[in-house]
Amino acid sequence: MSDLENMITAFQKGRAEYEQRKNGTLQGSFEVREIYGADDAQAHEAGRIILGNNLDYMDHICKNDKLGRGLQLIYVDPPFFSKSKYQASVVLQSEILGNSSTVKIDAYDDFRASALESYLQMLTTRLFFMRDLLSDTGCIAVHLDWHVTHYVKILMDEIFGRKNFINEIIWNYKSGGTSKKNFARKHDTLLLYGKTKQYKFHMLKEKSYNRGMKPYCFQGVEEFQDEQGWYTMVNMKDVWTIDMVGRTSAERTGYATQKPEKLLERIVEACSDPGDLCADFFAGSGSFGAVCAKMGRNWILCDESSLAISSEIARLTALQKNAGEKEDRMAGGFAVLAAKCGTAAKSDPDVRNAAKIFAEVSEDQVLLTGYEPPETVENCSSPEEVERFVRGDSLSLVAVWSVDFAWNGMVHRADKILCSGERSVQIPKGAERIHIAGYDVFGNRFAVFFER
Q1: pLDDT per position as a tens digit, 345-374
Q2: What biological process terms from GO does the record include (predicted)?
Q3: Which CATH number is 349-451 given?
Q4: All CATH 2.60.40 domain ranges in the chain, comma separated
Q5: 256 vs 25, 49, 87, 89, 253, CA distance in Å?
Q6: CATH class of the domain defined by 3-197+255-347
Q7: Does residue 360 contact residue 379 with C-beta atoms inside 8 Å?
Protein backbone atom coordinates (compact mmCIF):
# COMPACT_ATOMS: atom_id res chain seq x y z
CA MET A 1 0.00 0.00 0.00
CA SER A 2 1.00 3.62 -0.44
CA ASP A 3 1.83 5.80 2.57
CA LEU A 4 -1.53 7.56 2.17
CA GLU A 5 -3.36 4.22 2.27
CA ASN A 6 -1.25 3.18 5.28
CA MET A 7 -2.24 6.36 7.09
CA ILE A 8 -5.95 5.78 6.44
CA THR A 9 -5.70 2.15 7.56
CA ALA A 10 -3.74 3.16 10.66
CA PHE A 11 -6.40 5.70 11.62
CA GLN A 12 -9.20 3.19 11.19
CA LYS A 13 -7.38 0.52 13.23
CA GLY A 14 -6.35 3.01 15.91
CA ARG A 15 -9.92 4.30 16.28
CA ALA A 16 -11.25 0.73 16.44
CA GLU A 17 -8.75 -0.13 19.20
CA TYR A 18 -9.78 2.99 21.13
CA GLU A 19 -13.49 2.13 20.82
CA GLN A 20 -12.89 -1.47 21.91
CA ARG A 21 -11.05 -0.29 25.00
CA LYS A 22 -13.72 2.28 25.81
CA ASN A 23 -16.47 -0.33 25.51
CA GLY A 24 -14.57 -3.10 27.30
CA THR A 25 -13.28 -3.65 30.80
CA LEU A 26 -9.61 -3.03 31.49
CA GLN A 27 -7.99 -5.97 33.24
CA GLY A 28 -5.74 -5.25 36.18
CA SER A 29 -5.14 -2.05 38.13
CA PHE A 30 -2.51 0.48 39.06
CA GLU A 31 -0.95 0.40 42.49
CA VAL A 32 0.88 3.12 44.42
CA ARG A 33 4.33 1.75 45.23
CA GLU A 34 6.32 4.75 46.45
CA ILE A 35 5.45 8.20 47.81
CA TYR A 36 7.96 11.02 47.97
CA GLY A 37 6.87 13.76 50.35
CA ALA A 38 3.08 13.29 50.15
CA ASP A 39 0.99 12.52 53.21
CA ASP A 40 -1.85 10.63 51.53
CA ALA A 41 -1.28 8.79 48.25
CA GLN A 42 -4.95 8.51 47.39
CA ALA A 43 -5.61 12.23 47.78
CA HIS A 44 -2.27 13.32 46.39
CA GLU A 45 -2.42 15.08 43.03
CA ALA A 46 0.66 17.32 43.01
CA GLY A 47 2.77 14.87 41.05
CA ARG A 48 2.62 11.32 39.73
CA ILE A 49 5.34 9.27 38.07
CA ILE A 50 3.85 6.26 36.30
CA LEU A 51 5.91 3.23 35.38
CA GLY A 52 3.89 1.47 32.73
CA ASN A 53 2.30 1.53 29.31
CA ASN A 54 0.79 4.96 28.70
CA LEU A 55 -2.22 3.52 26.84
CA ASP A 56 -3.07 1.29 29.79
CA TYR A 57 -2.71 4.19 32.17
CA MET A 58 -4.81 6.61 30.14
CA ASP A 59 -7.51 3.96 29.79
CA HIS A 60 -7.34 3.42 33.55
CA ILE A 61 -7.76 7.07 34.57
CA CYS A 62 -10.51 7.61 32.01
CA LYS A 63 -12.54 4.87 33.71
CA ASN A 64 -11.44 4.86 37.32
CA ASP A 65 -9.82 8.13 38.33
CA LYS A 66 -11.27 11.50 39.24
CA LEU A 67 -8.49 13.07 37.17
CA GLY A 68 -10.27 11.92 34.01
CA ARG A 69 -11.23 14.89 31.81
CA GLY A 70 -9.33 17.17 34.16
CA LEU A 71 -6.08 17.79 32.29
CA GLN A 72 -5.45 21.37 31.26
CA LEU A 73 -2.34 20.66 29.18
CA ILE A 74 -0.89 17.57 27.57
CA TYR A 75 2.60 17.75 26.09
CA VAL A 76 3.92 14.63 24.40
CA ASP A 77 7.28 13.98 22.80
CA PRO A 78 6.67 10.53 21.25
CA PRO A 79 9.15 8.56 19.14
CA PHE A 80 9.72 10.35 15.83
CA PHE A 81 9.69 7.23 13.63
CA SER A 82 13.36 7.89 12.92
CA LYS A 83 14.12 4.15 13.14
CA SER A 84 17.20 4.97 15.21
CA LYS A 85 18.47 3.60 18.51
CA TYR A 86 18.93 6.22 21.24
CA GLN A 87 21.24 6.00 24.21
CA ALA A 88 21.61 7.78 27.52
CA SER A 89 25.04 8.94 28.69
CA VAL A 90 26.19 8.30 32.26
CA VAL A 91 29.40 9.32 34.01
CA LEU A 92 29.92 7.42 37.26
CA GLN A 93 31.36 9.60 40.03
CA SER A 94 33.42 8.26 42.90
CA GLU A 95 35.63 9.87 45.56
CA ILE A 96 37.70 6.69 45.45
CA LEU A 97 38.01 6.10 41.69
CA GLY A 98 37.33 9.56 40.29
CA ASN A 99 34.99 9.90 37.32
CA SER A 100 34.43 7.13 34.81
CA SER A 101 34.55 7.52 31.07
CA THR A 102 31.13 8.11 29.50
CA VAL A 103 29.02 4.96 29.67
CA LYS A 104 26.30 4.65 27.02
CA ILE A 105 23.07 2.88 27.97
CA ASP A 106 20.37 1.90 25.49
CA ALA A 107 17.35 4.11 26.21
CA TYR A 108 14.86 3.15 23.50
CA ASP A 109 14.47 2.08 19.88
CA ASP A 110 12.46 4.51 17.78
CA PHE A 111 10.23 2.01 15.96
CA ARG A 112 13.21 0.40 14.24
CA ALA A 113 11.34 -2.70 13.16
CA SER A 114 7.90 -1.19 12.61
CA ALA A 115 6.07 -0.05 9.52
CA LEU A 116 4.56 3.40 9.20
CA GLU A 117 1.08 1.96 9.64
CA SER A 118 1.96 0.45 13.03
CA TYR A 119 3.48 3.70 14.22
CA LEU A 120 0.49 5.82 13.18
CA GLN A 121 -1.95 3.32 14.68
CA MET A 122 -0.06 3.52 17.98
CA LEU A 123 -0.36 7.31 18.01
CA THR A 124 -3.98 7.37 16.84
CA THR A 125 -5.27 5.25 19.72
CA ARG A 126 -3.38 7.35 22.25
CA LEU A 127 -4.48 10.68 20.75
CA PHE A 128 -8.14 9.65 21.14
CA PHE A 129 -7.55 8.99 24.84
CA MET A 130 -5.65 12.26 25.25
CA ARG A 131 -8.61 14.10 23.74
CA ASP A 132 -10.89 12.47 26.31
CA LEU A 133 -8.60 13.40 29.20
CA LEU A 134 -8.41 17.11 28.36
CA SER A 135 -10.74 19.57 30.04
CA ASP A 136 -12.89 21.75 27.78
CA THR A 137 -10.32 24.54 28.16
CA GLY A 138 -7.40 22.18 27.62
CA CYS A 139 -4.66 22.13 24.98
CA ILE A 140 -2.37 19.46 23.57
CA ALA A 141 1.10 19.93 22.05
CA VAL A 142 2.59 17.03 20.08
CA HIS A 143 6.33 17.33 19.47
CA LEU A 144 7.69 15.72 16.26
CA ASP A 145 10.18 16.33 13.45
CA TRP A 146 10.23 16.00 9.66
CA HIS A 147 9.69 12.23 9.62
CA VAL A 148 5.93 12.13 10.30
CA THR A 149 4.67 15.60 11.27
CA HIS A 150 2.63 15.85 8.06
CA TYR A 151 0.85 12.56 8.70
CA VAL A 152 0.19 13.27 12.38
CA LYS A 153 -1.27 16.71 11.64
CA ILE A 154 -3.94 15.07 9.47
CA LEU A 155 -4.67 12.57 12.24
CA MET A 156 -5.02 15.40 14.75
CA ASP A 157 -7.33 17.30 12.39
CA GLU A 158 -9.58 14.24 12.40
CA ILE A 159 -9.39 13.59 16.15
CA PHE A 160 -9.40 17.15 17.55
CA GLY A 161 -11.01 18.93 14.60
CA ARG A 162 -9.39 21.31 12.15
CA LYS A 163 -11.29 24.18 13.76
CA ASN A 164 -9.42 23.51 17.02
CA PHE A 165 -5.97 23.84 15.47
CA ILE A 166 -4.02 26.65 17.17
CA ASN A 167 -0.43 26.69 15.90
CA GLU A 168 2.31 24.81 14.13
CA ILE A 169 5.30 25.93 16.21
CA ILE A 170 8.76 25.62 14.70
CA TRP A 171 11.55 25.03 17.20
CA ASN A 172 14.78 26.10 15.50
CA TYR A 173 18.16 25.04 16.92
CA LYS A 174 21.83 24.90 15.93
CA SER A 175 22.75 21.37 16.97
CA GLY A 176 22.37 18.19 14.95
CA GLY A 177 23.88 16.52 11.91
CA THR A 178 24.48 17.79 8.40
CA SER A 179 24.45 16.22 4.95
CA LYS A 180 25.79 17.06 1.50
CA LYS A 181 22.52 15.90 -0.06
CA ASN A 182 20.05 18.23 1.70
CA PHE A 183 19.85 21.50 3.61
CA ALA A 184 20.72 20.97 7.28
CA ARG A 185 17.64 19.81 9.19
CA LYS A 186 17.65 22.11 12.19
CA HIS A 187 14.10 22.25 13.50
CA ASP A 188 11.34 20.28 15.20
CA THR A 189 7.60 20.93 14.99
CA LEU A 190 5.05 21.24 17.80
CA LEU A 191 1.42 20.78 16.76
CA LEU A 192 -0.78 22.74 19.16
CA TYR A 193 -4.56 22.06 19.35
CA GLY A 194 -7.36 23.00 21.73
CA LYS A 195 -9.99 20.57 23.01
CA THR A 196 -12.66 23.15 22.13
CA LYS A 197 -12.82 26.73 20.93
CA GLN A 198 -12.78 27.77 24.61
CA TYR A 199 -9.18 26.67 25.11
CA LYS A 200 -7.05 28.55 27.65
CA PHE A 201 -4.29 30.63 26.08
CA HIS A 202 -2.06 33.42 27.41
CA MET A 203 -0.31 35.42 24.73
CA LEU A 204 3.45 35.62 25.30
CA LYS A 205 5.57 38.57 24.27
CA GLU A 206 9.01 38.80 22.71
CA LYS A 207 11.49 41.45 21.62
CA SER A 208 11.34 42.79 18.07
CA TYR A 209 14.43 44.82 17.23
CA ASN A 210 14.03 47.99 15.17
CA ARG A 211 15.67 48.27 11.77
CA GLY A 212 19.18 49.59 12.28
CA MET A 213 18.70 49.06 16.04
CA LYS A 214 17.68 52.72 16.27
CA PRO A 215 14.59 54.24 17.91
CA TYR A 216 11.54 54.81 15.67
CA CYS A 217 9.99 57.49 17.91
CA PHE A 218 6.49 56.63 16.65
CA GLN A 219 3.68 58.21 18.62
CA GLY A 220 2.03 55.75 20.99
CA VAL A 221 4.70 53.03 20.48
CA GLU A 222 6.65 52.09 23.61
CA GLU A 223 10.29 51.35 22.85
CA PHE A 224 13.07 49.83 24.94
CA GLN A 225 16.85 49.56 24.68
CA ASP A 226 19.32 46.82 25.63
CA GLU A 227 22.95 46.09 24.77
CA GLN A 228 21.96 45.16 21.19
CA GLY A 229 19.83 48.20 20.44
CA TRP A 230 16.25 49.49 20.42
CA TYR A 231 13.24 47.20 20.32
CA THR A 232 9.50 46.91 20.92
CA MET A 233 7.57 44.08 22.61
CA VAL A 234 5.31 42.17 20.21
CA ASN A 235 3.16 39.04 20.30
CA MET A 236 5.38 35.97 20.13
CA LYS A 237 5.76 34.42 16.69
CA ASP A 238 5.44 30.71 15.90
CA VAL A 239 9.15 30.23 15.13
CA TRP A 240 11.22 29.81 18.30
CA THR A 241 15.01 29.81 18.31
CA ILE A 242 16.14 27.98 21.44
CA ASP A 243 19.40 26.09 21.95
CA MET A 244 19.30 22.35 22.60
CA VAL A 245 20.47 21.10 25.99
CA GLY A 246 24.25 21.46 25.73
CA ARG A 247 26.81 19.04 27.08
CA THR A 248 27.74 21.42 29.90
CA SER A 249 24.20 22.60 30.67
CA ALA A 250 23.15 22.43 34.32
CA GLU A 251 19.85 20.80 33.33
CA ARG A 252 21.48 18.03 31.29
CA THR A 253 20.69 14.54 32.59
CA GLY A 254 22.35 12.53 29.83
CA TYR A 255 19.02 10.97 28.86
CA ALA A 256 18.52 10.55 25.13
CA THR A 257 16.61 13.25 23.21
CA GLN A 258 16.21 15.48 26.28
CA LYS A 259 14.34 18.71 25.48
CA PRO A 260 15.32 22.13 26.92
CA GLU A 261 13.28 23.51 29.80
CA LYS A 262 13.05 26.91 28.12
CA LEU A 263 11.05 25.36 25.26
CA LEU A 264 8.62 23.66 27.62
CA GLU A 265 8.28 26.75 29.81
CA ARG A 266 6.70 28.61 26.90
CA ILE A 267 4.11 25.90 26.32
CA VAL A 268 3.27 25.63 30.02
CA GLU A 269 3.05 29.40 30.51
CA ALA A 270 0.88 29.93 27.42
CA CYS A 271 -1.61 27.11 27.97
CA SER A 272 -2.02 26.72 31.75
CA ASP A 273 -2.17 28.54 35.08
CA PRO A 274 -0.60 27.74 38.47
CA GLY A 275 -2.51 24.88 40.07
CA ASP A 276 -3.59 23.34 36.75
CA LEU A 277 -2.94 19.68 36.05
CA CYS A 278 -0.58 18.93 33.14
CA ALA A 279 0.67 15.61 31.75
CA ASP A 280 3.40 14.08 29.59
CA PHE A 281 2.70 10.49 28.56
CA PHE A 282 6.11 9.97 26.85
CA ALA A 283 8.01 11.50 29.75
CA GLY A 284 11.64 10.45 29.10
CA SER A 285 14.02 12.41 31.32
CA GLY A 286 11.21 14.26 33.11
CA SER A 287 11.90 17.77 31.77
CA PHE A 288 8.18 18.53 31.53
CA GLY A 289 7.57 17.53 35.15
CA ALA A 290 10.54 19.62 36.31
CA VAL A 291 9.19 22.68 34.47
CA CYS A 292 5.68 22.17 35.85
CA ALA A 293 7.02 21.81 39.39
CA LYS A 294 9.02 25.03 39.07
CA MET A 295 6.04 26.89 37.62
CA GLY A 296 3.50 25.74 40.23
CA ARG A 297 1.56 23.28 38.07
CA ASN A 298 0.48 19.80 39.11
CA TRP A 299 1.85 17.11 36.82
CA ILE A 300 1.72 13.52 35.62
CA LEU A 301 4.66 11.76 33.97
CA CYS A 302 4.31 8.33 32.36
CA ASP A 303 6.92 6.15 30.71
CA GLU A 304 7.40 2.42 30.17
CA SER A 305 11.20 2.61 30.51
CA SER A 306 12.64 1.91 33.95
CA LEU A 307 15.67 4.01 32.93
CA ALA A 308 13.36 6.98 32.31
CA ILE A 309 11.59 6.45 35.65
CA SER A 310 14.94 6.39 37.48
CA SER A 311 15.97 9.63 35.77
CA GLU A 312 12.63 11.29 36.59
CA ILE A 313 12.69 10.32 40.26
CA ALA A 314 16.28 11.49 40.71
CA ARG A 315 15.54 14.77 38.92
CA LEU A 316 12.30 15.61 40.74
CA THR A 317 13.59 14.65 44.17
CA ALA A 318 16.75 16.73 43.68
CA LEU A 319 14.55 19.64 42.60
CA GLN A 320 12.38 19.35 45.69
CA LYS A 321 15.37 18.94 48.01
CA ASN A 322 16.86 22.12 46.62
CA ALA A 323 13.54 23.87 47.26
CA GLY A 324 13.87 23.01 50.96
CA GLU A 325 12.30 20.63 53.45
CA LYS A 326 9.44 21.14 55.89
CA GLU A 327 9.87 19.26 59.14
CA ASP A 328 10.29 15.52 58.51
CA ARG A 329 8.60 15.24 55.12
CA MET A 330 9.43 17.32 52.09
CA ALA A 331 7.11 20.03 50.86
CA GLY A 332 5.04 19.06 47.85
CA GLY A 333 6.05 15.59 46.86
CA PHE A 334 4.85 13.01 44.41
CA ALA A 335 3.76 9.41 44.15
CA VAL A 336 5.32 6.66 42.06
CA LEU A 337 2.87 4.15 40.66
CA ALA A 338 3.68 0.80 39.07
CA ALA A 339 1.59 -0.54 36.21
CA LYS A 340 -0.28 -3.82 36.63
CA CYS A 341 -2.13 -3.80 33.32
CA GLY A 342 -0.97 -6.61 31.08
CA THR A 343 2.73 -5.79 31.40
CA ALA A 344 3.29 -6.52 35.07
CA ALA A 345 6.32 -8.75 34.57
CA LYS A 346 8.05 -6.00 32.62
CA SER A 347 6.85 -2.99 34.58
CA ASP A 348 6.59 -4.06 38.22
CA PRO A 349 9.79 -2.88 39.97
CA ASP A 350 9.92 -5.89 42.28
CA VAL A 351 9.60 -8.38 39.41
CA ARG A 352 11.77 -6.57 36.92
CA ASN A 353 15.25 -6.92 38.42
CA ALA A 354 17.46 -8.55 41.00
CA ALA A 355 19.51 -5.57 42.21
CA LYS A 356 20.60 -5.61 45.86
CA ILE A 357 21.46 -2.85 48.32
CA PHE A 358 23.43 -3.56 51.50
CA ALA A 359 23.25 -1.41 54.62
CA GLU A 360 24.06 -1.30 58.32
CA VAL A 361 21.41 -0.06 60.74
CA SER A 362 22.65 1.16 64.12
CA GLU A 363 20.82 2.94 66.93
CA ASP A 364 20.96 6.30 65.21
CA GLN A 365 22.05 5.79 61.60
CA VAL A 366 21.43 3.98 58.33
CA LEU A 367 24.67 3.50 56.43
CA LEU A 368 24.84 2.08 52.92
CA THR A 369 27.72 -0.39 52.63
CA GLY A 370 27.45 -1.80 49.12
CA TYR A 371 25.41 -2.31 46.01
CA GLU A 372 25.10 -5.28 43.69
CA PRO A 373 23.51 -4.70 40.27
CA PRO A 374 21.82 -7.55 38.40
CA GLU A 375 24.25 -10.24 37.26
CA THR A 376 24.51 -8.72 33.82
CA VAL A 377 24.19 -5.01 33.12
CA GLU A 378 22.43 -5.16 29.78
CA ASN A 379 22.68 -2.70 26.90
CA CYS A 380 25.80 -0.99 28.23
CA SER A 381 28.65 0.27 26.04
CA SER A 382 31.42 -0.22 28.64
CA PRO A 383 30.76 -3.28 30.80
CA GLU A 384 34.43 -3.41 31.86
CA GLU A 385 34.24 0.17 33.13
CA VAL A 386 31.03 -0.57 35.03
CA GLU A 387 32.59 -3.69 36.54
CA ARG A 388 35.58 -1.62 37.71
CA PHE A 389 33.26 0.66 39.63
CA VAL A 390 31.24 -2.26 40.98
CA ARG A 391 34.45 -3.75 42.42
CA GLY A 392 36.02 -0.48 43.57
CA ASP A 393 33.03 1.61 44.71
CA SER A 394 29.71 -0.09 44.03
CA LEU A 395 27.64 2.68 45.64
CA SER A 396 28.68 5.03 42.85
CA LEU A 397 26.04 3.25 40.73
CA VAL A 398 23.21 4.43 43.03
CA ALA A 399 21.27 7.34 41.48
CA VAL A 400 18.73 8.02 44.25
CA TRP A 401 17.63 6.25 47.44
CA SER A 402 15.23 6.92 50.27
CA VAL A 403 14.24 5.62 53.68
CA ASP A 404 10.81 4.93 55.15
CA PHE A 405 11.16 4.77 58.96
CA ALA A 406 7.68 3.30 59.52
CA TRP A 407 7.10 0.98 56.57
CA ASN A 408 3.58 -0.45 56.38
CA GLY A 409 4.70 -3.46 54.36
CA MET A 410 3.23 -2.21 51.08
CA VAL A 411 3.77 1.45 50.15
CA HIS A 412 7.23 2.95 50.58
CA ARG A 413 6.74 6.45 52.03
CA ALA A 414 10.03 8.32 51.73
CA ASP A 415 10.79 10.21 54.95
CA LYS A 416 14.28 11.03 53.74
CA ILE A 417 15.46 11.14 50.14
CA LEU A 418 19.13 11.08 49.23
CA CYS A 419 20.83 11.59 45.91
CA SER A 420 24.00 10.15 44.43
CA GLY A 421 26.97 10.55 46.79
CA GLU A 422 24.92 10.59 50.00
CA ARG A 423 25.44 7.32 51.85
CA SER A 424 24.06 7.71 55.36
CA VAL A 425 21.06 9.19 57.16
CA GLN A 426 20.12 9.73 60.80
CA ILE A 427 17.34 7.57 62.29
CA PRO A 428 14.65 9.34 64.35
CA LYS A 429 13.74 8.02 67.78
CA GLY A 430 11.17 5.24 67.81
CA ALA A 431 11.82 4.07 64.24
CA GLU A 432 11.41 0.29 64.13
CA ARG A 433 10.40 -0.71 60.58
CA ILE A 434 13.06 0.69 58.26
CA HIS A 435 12.64 0.23 54.52
CA ILE A 436 15.27 1.38 52.01
CA ALA A 437 14.40 1.72 48.33
CA GLY A 438 15.99 3.38 45.34
CA TYR A 439 17.21 3.21 41.75
CA ASP A 440 20.58 2.84 40.11
CA VAL A 441 21.87 4.75 37.09
CA PHE A 442 20.63 2.00 34.76
CA GLY A 443 17.03 2.13 36.01
CA ASN A 444 17.19 -0.95 38.24
CA ARG A 445 15.19 -0.72 41.46
CA PHE A 446 16.47 -2.05 44.78
CA ALA A 447 14.85 -2.42 48.20
CA VAL A 448 15.65 -3.91 51.61
CA PHE A 449 13.80 -4.01 54.94
CA PHE A 450 15.12 -3.93 58.52
CA GLU A 451 13.00 -4.49 61.64
CA ARG A 452 14.45 -3.43 64.97
Answers
A1: 344 444 445 789 999 999 899 999 999 988
A2: DNA restriction-modification system; methylation
A3: 2.60.40
A4: 349-451
A5: 35, 19, 5, 8, 9
A6: alpha beta
A7: no
